[in-house]
Design brief:
This protein is of the alpha/beta class. The chain contains 14 helices and 17 strands. Strand 15 and strand 16 form a beta hairpin. Bound molecules: iron/sulfur cluster (SF4) (2 copies).
Length: 488
Amino acid sequence: MRLHTFRGGVHPPSQKHLSADRSIEVLPLPPRLYIPLQQHAGAPALPVVTVGQKVAKGELLAREHGVTSAPLHAPSSGTVTAIGDFTAPHASGLPLPTIVLDTDGEEHWVESEPPPDPFSRTPEEVARQVGAAGIVGMGGANFPASVKLSKARQAGVHTLVVNGAECEPYVTCDDRLMRERATEIVDGAAIMLHALQAPRALIAIEDNKPEAVQAMRDACQNDARMTVLSLPSRYPAGSAKQLIQLLSGLETPSGGRGTDTGLLVHNVGTAYSVHRALRYGQPLISRIVTVSGGAVAEPRNLEVPLGALAVDLLNYCGGVSKDCARLLMGGPMMGQPLPGVEVPVIKGTNGILALTAAEAGEAQPASPCIRCGRCVEACPMGLLPLELSKRARSEDWSGIQALGLSDCMSCGSCAYVCPSHIPLPQYFAFARGKLAEQRREERKSAHIRELMEQRQARFARAEQAKAEAAAKRQAAKKQRAVVMEEED
Ligand code: SF4
Ligand code: SF4
């Protein structure tokens, strides 16, 4: 199959050698797990448990709330000891409502019937089961997988893209998953094809993971619907829009969805979770996380219960050295800086990185733009990062929107190549925050206007009722006067 290309992109040092040869190890069960109610795109889940309640492994802790949401399940058996605010896995460090579970070490599973053969179920039932298992996009997007499957089937998607590109430096969890659990991923992909009623799947892997390419080829050699493709390594090839362009040559329209091109992208970790849910009835309660970086004593790939703290993982990897300059959840290009190590792993966490100052490149102060145009060449979305940042600095919000800020996917390629070390994505994040604030203010003003109009309408109705009652009283008085005159 002919591969196409996408514009821009960069080649940051992959640094995958630090952990790529470490097999997946299971993290010893931490005594306490912290499960934030918001770990997916959409509305936070609603708790269905109370403090003091004992729960079994896999038992429902919180149900989905609304169409775009996902339920949460107990990653282990134990007792719910608190439901309250706890530090979120986000740069702001702001707390989020979180269920705290003290584990009992018994790993006692909730009782359930073995699930029926997924291929005997309707596509709708399969998608529903994926939703009930709380599965979200495991590549970091965190979008509920069942919603994606249902919408894509309705849109007539013809190709499932199983994303094993894993283009972020340092991160190797998908590489290890493909090397070690390829059969399960292929089974999950076959189940998703059934849910989509689609005829083919393309399994896309960057060529810096030859063992994973071979393992996946071996696993799907008897299924003619599946093709494994080795892609040239270039960041951000693993981003959905770029991957679609690489495979089909089609560009996702501005403001549109990937499925508008007839292709649906799901991460290899998502396919693996679909296999666990539909074959064994197991919800999404754990994931593979890469712990790496020059400041980590022994980088590793760990299978981790959701809710384990970053510090649990780092300690298991021998701890962090004093020269740690930056802690990240995710990769160095698109990951979130962490406010500390007491932050829980959530469904979309693919890496915990502890980088030294040299790795983080923090010593470089920003200098003025020299209009070299490198950021424009690197942008995979065809944007003008230097102009966007200029609009952000001058607080020209309509200008920055007109230049396509909403198409920026915060990939960081522009900042990576900028010789002036201008933190371009930070300007864009600032602009997004301001625009969100503006929208909130506009919604608030519209709400106040609506309340005022309702109040005025109520007042006008009351005045009218008063006038009608007065007129009625006047008419009755007149009537009485006529009657009295007639009697006289
Ligand atoms: S790469 Fe940096 S210096 Fe060059 S044009 Fe873009 S913002 Fe300016
Ligand atoms: S962060 Fe945004 S503007 Fe910069 S290269 Fe990526 S998509 Fe383009």
